[in-house]
């Protein structure tokens, strides 16, 4: 395939060259070859994008009805769905996720936008019974300019997650995609233009974290930051946002416990546990990377899960036979390899995997890897690898399962398998996670609020709950009484 060159940023509804002229290279993780280049925005470009967003906020966008905003989101959704295959191909070359997954993610992103298109004119304030002679009510108004900073593992999905609620509530957005996977962001920008959104409502500035990213989160003209990524970066963003008291919402990953009790439907549980650990090559914030198995079925579950892991086809992202692709970057592959070595150093045993798949001489590939023999306090069981590495840990009692599950600094997703209805409710109530699933895992959906406890983040994505993250609540009191007000200074 020929090299793809993108040389313009999307600012104020127009395509503009970056002020510095700098560029970023995108490496195809299946081949380790540069396949595309994109502009590398800097602080000056972010200034222009924020100014364009502010002008749009104060201009035609603010005069559109909520219903009209919703229709524009619905139109953008239709364009995403129309171009799902071509966008999926860009995504697969950019981040290494198999084509069948990326095309599906683009189609689901369209559903996210449709959902928020429908929600745009359903959000309303309240009438408050304040006192006779006065009409008191609340208005829900946009926060303003939103800086959206997205990760490299599921780019187009996260564009929809952030733009949907932000635009539905009347905000404007400056989007800074991950520097490793920015190609699809510029393709997305063309759809924003074609959907008819007013200039400046969405601005897209690919760039490095230390350049465009820092400039955006610290910019005085930005009112809110929505970020998905590591908690270390979230801490830096919070410090940068502190001077302006910006609103922030963070989704910062997890080390998700997936609990299998002995009374579970083991066939279903093992199938889902395998998928939850290795989907997207483990590069998912909600990967079920700690599998807790009741001791009386531990050997049975471990053997069956190992057999399933060994039949996963690892291969190039564009190969239709591929189940999971490469890691997105050499850096991420090196990180995963270091954690595999660390697990061995900590006394763990590799049940399967741990190396490079046979026949794949190039690309950032690693086998699905299953560890056992590690304590929950080990680094491999505590730290987010973001690779296809699963730690299997036995437990004896319900109390022990809950204690192990909660013994982590994260709290994004948790799951459990049981036929006992009472246990399902007891354990769900006690698990410290923003999303708990019973007899399934990670049912992420546009209707379900999603976010974390502890270091997994602040605030929520998705569902109607996220709309409150993007509005200011204004109380208004109109006094219509005829009585003269009491003059406290009369005497």
From TrEMBL:
Claim: Oxidoreductase is one of the keywords in the record:
yes
Keyword Lyase recorded: no
Transmembrane spans? none
Q: Which organism is it from?
A: Nonomuraea insulae
Under CDD domains, the record lists: ALDH_DhaS
Q: Which domain of life is it from?
A: Bacteria
Keyword set, alphabetical order: Oxidoreductase
Where do the catalytic residues lie? Answer: 251
Family, as annotated = Belongs to the aldehyde dehydrogenase family.
Q: Where is the Aldehyde dehydrogenase domain?
A: 15-476
Q: What is this protein called?
A: Aldehyde dehydrogenase
Matching InterPro entries, A to Z? Ald_DH/histidinol_DH, Ald_DH_C, Ald_DH_CS_CYS, Ald_DH_CS_GLU, Ald_DH_N, Aldehyde_DH_dom
